[in-house]
């Protein structure tokens, strides 16, 4: 059986949600991160999630690869779009933007110690990271204005991934309801999906 390695509170939540949306026969394995004894190191030398191991033992890492791969296993579900279509490019555009810009913006917010050892400097790094994150979330809000979902008015793997980072906003002290009311309804729809509830319950158990 295909295995998907996830961690509570990690960006693997997007792939976890997508897999549950598709109802694929996948075994979900929750692992700790940033600990040398974590079993994730046995399958992914980088020690990161999501990591997917296929039935035949091939390993796939990175959300940019795993999300479209999962969607293509069940194309009739509509979580992706046909190769060569504009919608397919738009979904990939969202995944790329989220992976590089949005995910990257959280690093100085959550782990400023990676950039400097001095605690006072870390405070400044974190403040700058939060300001950058706010600017990026404003772009997300504009891109979603008047839309139910990110692409094609249906839930896709782009949404499965986007919801992760909107759920993270309280970590940066950003309240989506007061600061980004245009995104509040989107996140409410996201959190109401059975796939999201199931993934969250599994990871919290």
Can you describe this structure in just a few lines?
The protein has two domains: 2-79 and 196-204, Glutaredoxin (3-Layer(aba) Sandwich), CATH 3.40.30; 86-193, Glutathione S-transferase Yfyf (Class Pi), Chain A, domain 2, CATH 1.20.1050. It is built from nine helices and four strands, in the order βαβαββααααααα.
Radius of gyration, taken over Cα atoms and rounded to an integer in Å: 17 Å
Strand order of the largest sheet: 2-1-3-4
Q: Approximately how much beta-strand content do the residues carry?
A: 5-15%
Note the run of SSEs as H and E.
EHEHEEHHHHHHH
Which CATH architecture of the largest domain?
Up-down Bundle
Q: What is the tally of helical segments?
A: 9
**Ranges with pLDDT <50 over ≥5 residues?**
none
- Provide mean pLDDT, rounded: 95
What class do helices, strands and sheet pairing give? Answer: alpha+beta
Cα distance, first to last residue? Answer: 22 Å
Give the C-level CATH assignment of the largest domain: Mainly Alpha
Pfam families: GST_C (PF00043), GST_N_2 (PF13409)
InterPro entries: Glutathione-S-Trfase_C-like, Glutathione-S-Trfase_C_sf, Glutathione_S-Trfase, Glutathione_S-Trfase_N, GST_C, Thioredoxin-like_sf
Protein name: Glutathione binding-like protein
Organism: Uliginosibacterium silvisoli
Explain the overall architecture:
This protein has 205 residues and is α+β, with helices and mostly antiparallel strands. The protein folds into two domains: 2-79 and 196-204, Glutaredoxin, CATH 3.40.30; 86-193, Glutathione S-transferase Yfyf (Class Pi), Chain A, domain 2 (Up-down Bundle), CATH 1.20.1050.10. The protein contains nine helices and four strands. It has a four-stranded mixed β-sheet, covered by helices on one side. A hairpin with a 5-residue loop joins strand 3 (51-53) and strand 4. Helix 1 (13-22) packs across helix 6, helix 4 (86-110) runs parallel beside helix 6 (157-167) and helix 6 crosses helix 8. It is globular. It starts with a strand and ends with a helix. The model has no long low-confidence stretch (mean pLDDT 95). This is Glutathione binding-like protein. Residues 1-78 form the GST N-terminal domain. InterPro entries: Glutathione-S-Trfase_C-like, Glutathione-S-Trfase_C_sf, Glutathione_S-Trfase, Glutathione_S-Trfase_N, GST_C, Thioredoxin-like_sf. Residues 84-205 form the GST C-terminal domain. It comes from Uliginosibacterium silvisoli.
